[in-house]
Every structure is written in structure tokens, then in C-alpha cells.
Design goal:
- GO terms for molecular function: voltage-gated potassium channel activity.
- There is one protein chain.
- Helix content is 81%, strand content 0%.
- The protein has 141 residues and is mainly alpha-helical.
Amino acid sequence: MKKTRLMKIVLKRTGAFKLLCTYIVVFVAVSIGIMIVEPNINRLIDSLWYSFSVATTIGFGDITAVTIIGRILSIFLSICSILIIAVVPGIITSYYIESTKLREKESSAKFLDDLERLPELSKEELTALSERVKNFNKKKK
């Protein structure tokens, strides 16, 4: 549940959500276009199935495009799908790396601030700081 919420936040902040929504619209539009132009695809469910097999580059072969327009739409959907599969994970990974760097930077700044105020810190704060230094040294080794 928490990971799903985090994924939604990342998708919205990075703009990938709009990209995915646009892709879904393109997918449905191409499916409808295929249904209209292809003589052997008469139902929307068959068109969606065909579009799915094209989008995932599986190409089952149970339904095929025979018209030029149908083939062009299939190529267009394949290219869009490959781009989405390549771009969205990259956006999410980049966002994760940047947020991790930011957290590290904030943690380092807090640590340096504590060191600058060393004489002012309470016994509990000094103990916590000492533990952080020990943990840091353990991770380093």
C-alpha cells in the first residue's frame, strides 16, 4: 500500500503520470482505428487484444493487420510502447537517485551542524551523535 502511494507521488511529480495517461489514450485510439480499418477485426475486445500483442511486441499472430493503415497504426503503437517502456522506468530511477542524494546531503548538513554546536549539545544529543559516527564507521568498513 505504501509503495503504491509512493509510486503515484513519483509519477505525478516527474510528469510520468501525464505520459502514461497520454499513452493509454493513444493505445485506445489506435485500437479503435484498427477496429475500423481492419476487415478481420470487428470487435473492440479483439482490437484491444491485437493492440496489446503489438504493444508488448509479443505478436501472437492469432490476429494480424492486413491493410496499410492498420500496419502503420501497428508500427506507431509499437514505437510508442517501446518509448514508454524505456522512458518511465528511467524517470522513476532518476527521481529515486536524486531524492537519495538529497537525503544524504541533508543528513550530512545536519551532522556538520551538530559538530559545530558540540559544546551546546545535551548529553543525550552527544550520545546520539556518537552512535551515528559509530554506525557511519561500520558502514564504511
